[in-house]
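Section 5.1 Outputs to date
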Amino acid sequence: MQIIESPEEMQRLALFLKRSGKTIGFVPTMGFLHAGHLSLMRLAREKCDVLVASIFVNPTQFGPNEDLDAYPRDFERDELLCEEEGVDIVFYPEPGNMYAADASVWVDEESLSGVLCGASRTGHFRGVCTVVAKLFNLVLPDLAVFGEKDAQQLRIIERMVRDLNFPVEIVRGAIVREPDGLAMSSRNKYLTELQRRNALCLRQALDHVVDLVGQGVVDVAVLGKSVANLMASVPDAVVDYVEFVDDETLQPVGRVKGKTLVALAVKIGTTRLIDNAVVVP
């Protein structure tokens, strides 16, 4: 396995691989890898000749009061996990090499990014789109795998690829959960033992919605009130949003019809967690 820190070296190698007829698969991460990330790597590994994983905590997608400095990092552990999963190249750049001091060009999606997480994390998806575009230009992947847990991010990246004509196939990877149902996240590390138990309310809320929709309850006001009542009983849980939106456009819906994305963002203590499910009446 090769570790590359220089963006220029990464791009030169990617160009060489493309000219050699190799198919490049790509899994972008911010490190502190868990089983969810590894499942994306396995999915990509099946579809490519050369598998590249990036480990880069992207500063431009963090707001001024968010956890950039505290975000968990453990490159030595990540390196071992990547090697075990058959990653061929780990791209591990420094922020100063990814962004010029006077960088002034950004990629900004204007339809899908103003709702859900974008409503409370101003500028977040501008940072996400910009760094993913840069990574695509450096790694030159034929396919890239993104996880369904970050549902809004996944749909925004798909839109960016479509609208800017990136020659990249976006592959969706299923949410990977702990045995008790909590969606895997690098931020789970922040939770105390009690908070970890309380965090199960996200999955419980989604399961509750799925059950109600299965019983024929499709009015979003009724579903939302039921989720709010459930959340109100959970100590240390502060709801950022519970939204019911069209699975493609991410626009709010009044009734569950067709594929509806139920998306949650909840703070457990100081740790913000997200989860989602797609429901069909």
